[in-house]
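Recap from last week: sequence in, structure out.
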Amino acid sequence: MNLYPDIFKDNYNTVDRYHLATSPSRLQNNYRQRQNRHQQRHSTQVVTPLSATIPLSDNSFEEDVTTATSSTSPAFIIENISKSPPSSDKIYQTISDLCIDVFFKELLDPSGNGNINFVKQWQINYLKTLQAADLRRRRERYKDTNEMFLAYEVKRVTGMTAVLSQPLLLDDELLKVCNRERIRDEDDDDYYVRGDLLGFVEITQRPYGLGNTLESSSSEIVTTEYNTLGGGINDIPMRPVLTNLAVLRGARRYGIGSKLVDACEAHVRKGWNMNEIVLEVEDYNTKGLEFYRRRGFEILFSDPASRRYDINSSLWLKKVRCRREIMRKVYNNRQLSLMESAVRRICETIGNL
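Predicted structure tokens:
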């Protein structure tokens, strides 16, 4: 597990934009006109998830979307924290709970019956508090070199009280929803909100050396001119490092992890103008290694001196030595930009026909 600090964003402060775009009086008029239709089409529940029951998966990196069906895959949206600064510290605790549960609790208690001894449970609670504080601190101190991405489930809301009590997804935000086919178009006036947090990932620029041999080869591959620390021959390049990719067990195998990594890659190339990402995966995590290999990451070397918490220890979680695989993906920004421009032109041409 990598608990390297980073930054996050509370998407719920979009309530200000929502109130600017839609006044309460207009909502009331629309609601009265559509009340009968909603009673016929919707259940009595105030909030209806846009997904059926999701089967459980045993690995957060297992993103084989071919096994998911359109009737069960959830509608979700990927958002980054920098565009909507958090209005409270609650979002950091929510993210921390998700990550620690995925990295520890699911492994300690696969059945979810609460079969964890009180010492390990105390350690898990402590790690959640520590991680939440780290997330908040990184966001406050390193806004320009840290980014966090969240995957939220998209839910439909009905009832005037529900509509007025939480920020709605605006039209431009609905266009970014993944699995949009899960959102029924029976009523163009339906309202949607962010539901549960399904996944998280962070990307951070930090000093990260690859050794003399790989650094010399990187000078030929990586064209981005990186900032370095220090002023001598041993300067360490600043590289984007991907950490803390976590997806809830019940939301796996639907492409959420892949979309989160896509968001990191796009931010690195377009936001930071850099063209590589480095990450670390513990060698026992075979499914995680395969997930990143399918996405174009290659193993550079192994670090046998890393440490991790041993979940198999008898009484408490203790740190033990482990081996981590250091992986990297290099991007040809010029080629990717040309391909993206070509795709946009094709879409514009088709739209004009």
